[in-house]
Amino acid sequence: MGFEKFFDLVEVKEGKIFLKNKELIKQKMDDLIFDAVFEENEEIKIKKFTLIKEIAKELGAIPSSIQGLYEEMGKNFLGFTVPAINIRGLTYDVARAIFRKAKEKGVGAFIFEIARSEIGYTKQRPLEYSACVLAAAVKEEFSGPVFLQGDHFQIVRRYFEKDPLLETNYVKGLIKEAIEAEFYNIDIDTSTLVDLSKETIYEQQRPNFENTARLAEHVRSLEPEGITVSIGGEIGEIGGKNSTPEEARAYLDGFKEVYKGSKGLSKLSVQTGTKHGGVVLPDGSIAQVKIDFETLRVLSDLVRKEYGLSGCVQHGASTLPEEAFDKFPETGTSEIHLATGFQNIIYDSKHLPEEFRKMIYDFLKKQFSSEWKEGQTEEQFIYSTRKKGFGPFKKEWWTLPREIKEAIMEELEKKFELLFEKLKVFNTVEIVNKTIKPVKVPIKIEV
User: Fold this and answer.
1) What are the tens digits of pLDDT across the range 130-189?
2) Is 226 exposed, middle or buried (0-12, 13-18, 19+ CB in 10 A)?
3) Cβ neighbours of residue 273 under 8 Å, at least 6 residues apart?
């Protein structure tokens, strides 16, 4: 398919887009985004995604950096924790559900993100993710800053040890691709390189802060005019031991010494006892995790007062019990990353047809049998691998009957509302509008 579906809706003159019929655009968005996602010609696909992204910008949904809000938080904690949501499947539908709830509750402070690993197994390159989220904004008539984030843009240690330059250049390429797709928030994770064999904490953190600094300089070199990308750093690999004030200071002092860019980091990810995806028990249920909120309180306070950062970031939190989420604003946590809990709602929904679920699980058992660890029950294996069922079955997920998808989205909306309330981001539109001035970065359109 070419661009026929766009011709009644927009006109392109000298690389710029002009909207013909705003109401019709909203009506047709389901078709436009589906057509773009499943376009087989890669060149045409990119052009369709770009058109959709530019349509959204013209309608007021503008990809933005959260930097201004985080600078404000660095001076004075604002009393809420920003949720950063990873969408692994049904991206357009889930993003619509998030925008609906955000509009209803006046939520302005929320982030859509995708991690390096997720880009691979969900088969969503940054431009596709960006286009799906912005298409959802158009459908739900959301206007204002839209925060798109590269999560865990990570140096993988085993690849780095084999060929440091190749691995670094891969992450640099991913950063460039993400910024071109208008991800103006990038989380750099080189905590994988911390060297515990060294005697001092500073030297242990050296490979971490030096590589973060190089990648942060790369980010700054790619910034469009008028945009300061919000950059996050990380000191404790998620799933390891809890982070300490000494590690935070060693990393941030070291970063300041070697970094040659203008603005530094806006936040710091730390380890407090959680694990990505939660810890799954033999029956498939999630173990209760004891999260160290005192670590979050101490470190958020430290990085805010001594370094002007917005606070600390909590990863691997979506499977925590509901009562835990009130604690994040109380401890001054500036951002929290949420992924697996939403995936669990989708897979475990009573509305998802059993034969559809079984088809994916059978595929996983066959395709990823080498990942079935000794002693793992089938429930544990399925829980740990089912995130990989979104990419290969993307079209099947998208084409589930409307009533099934709507019922699942209703379940998700309840969860979004609960999280938004507990993280205290209701009625944050005003502070976001005060601290963020969206910049429409000009993109040349070709059709």
Assistant:
1) 999 999 999 999 999 999 999 999 999 999 999 999 999 999 999 999 999 999 999 999
2) exposed
3) 242, 289, 290, 291, 292, 295
pLDDT in tens, 293-339: 999 999 999 999 999 999 999 987 777 888 889 999 999 999 999 99
Angle at 88 between CA 406 and CA 349, to 5 degrees: 40
Buried b (16+ CB within 10 A) or exposed e, 37-57: bebeeeebbbbbbbbbbbbbb
The amino acid at residue 7 is: F
Cα–Cα nearest to 252, from 235, 240, 238, 237: 235
Distance CA 395, CA 14 (A): 34
Structural domain boundaries of the chain? 4-58, 62-345+415-435, 350-403
Indicate the length of the chain as a whole number.
447
CB atoms within 10 A of CB 366: 8
Q: 94 Cβ partners below 8 Å, 6+ apart?
A: 87, 342, 409, 412
Hey, is 161 helix, strand or coil? helix
DSSP track, 76-132: S--S--EEEEE--SSHHHHHHHHHHHHHHHT----EEEEEHHHHHHTT--HHHHHHH
Q: Which residues contact 280 (CB under 8 A, 6 or more apart)?
A: 286, 287, 379, 380, 383, 384
- 27: CB partners within 8 A, 6+ apart: none
CATH class of the domain whose range is 62-345+415-435: alpha beta
In angstroms, the CA 368 to CA 370 distance is 5
